[in-house]
Amino acid sequence: MRLMLSQTIDPHLLLLIFLPIIGFSAAIGQEPHLLRKNWGQILILAWPGVVVTFLLIALCAKFFFPYGWSWPQALLFGAMLSATDPVAVVAVLHEVGADEKLASVIDGESLVNDGSALVIFLVLQQFVEGYSLSAGQMVALFVQLAIVVLFVQLAVLGAAIGVGFALLTSFWLAHIFNDATLEIVLTLGAAYACYFVSEELCGASGLLAVVVMGFSMSVIGGRHITSRIKVEMHAFWEALEWLANTILFVWVGITLGLILPPKPSHPSLAMEVGITLGLILPPKPSHPSLAMEVEFTDFLTAADVGYAVVLYLWLMVARTVTIGVFYPLLCTGHVGYAMNWRTATVMVWAGLRGAVGVAMSLFILFDPLIKSDEYKAHCVFHMALMAFATVLINGSTAKYVLKWLGLLRMTPQQVQVLQHVLQVLLPEHPALPQKLMSRYVAIQVLEEQLGFLESTEAAGLIRG
Fold it and tell me: Is pTM beyond 0.85 here?
């Protein structure tokens, strides 16, 4: 049996299928009041912050890596790695009942910087495709293409389309009452329509449009959805997002297995087939976009693993510098809830890489105008390793970092509210042990006893 599926799927079709889900699902789940309050912090970190991050990564690619990349290639590499995906850290924040304000900033920044990083990436992609131009031609192309055309078209038009679809969808939701199926299907169809109109018909950023649509609906459309439907809708989108991320990463893994086949060490094994998981794979993929004349393994060596370790450490340094540059503004409380050194440390540790960065590496891989197979090989290799390393290291240790920083301890106000609720419950349930005073266990029991707890003020205080 042959793995033909991953060879026949057009990568742009795959992104059309999954990016609307990834962008919209997290955006629609934002708390409106937290989003309004933290909007300034989110924009600062997602636009100027992304610029600082991708420039620092580009410096590492240009001066530390021995690949001899041009400036456009190094900058494109930096843009690819500047998009964050802190899904694992945010999941831990919700699991342990940490500060919802912090989770809102981390999640919101990730969503917006996915769109901003993609806009910068698409602009710089034009330079890599024509990097042989002279310096004067490059400057002229940048002024004409980046500032006047692509940035306005991709970012501004994409955001406008997202707001338009949010208003239209909210209008229809206002005329539907308590119909879970219809409301969920409406948001699903609207997300895909928004992405398609923006990306395919208008040439704007489909991902940014979908994210803005989700944010706008969270603020203006949430009041048209009843509490019961809202719970079902969020559960649907969370499951869909998990499925989209899983399939996308599995597909990338299969693609890497096809284009990076291990070279046989013994002459008798030098057959033109590879065996992976007991499945015989063709040596040359049948899909035209995968028909590389040069094997990527010609460019990858054991030293690249060492460079990947240095790159991971440099990503942490770049993230620290980015947060540090804007910390004097973020800690004032004028652009959202005031940030302190503990929450800033969590922001640094939450700089995971994920699906959007992987998608951008596929853009490079399947771009026929980028002729350098060496550049494609190292981009895909480093992006895949950074996504794996940040999820494995940062994601798995997030709970311990929060505990070490003391962010899991309850405030006096939270303890008072929790004690009051428990005083009401304990007379009716005298068998409840004293360990209910534990923050996590108490929240679980309270949610079982009070199904509406998620929507009460007490839940907001208990969870932070």
Answer: no
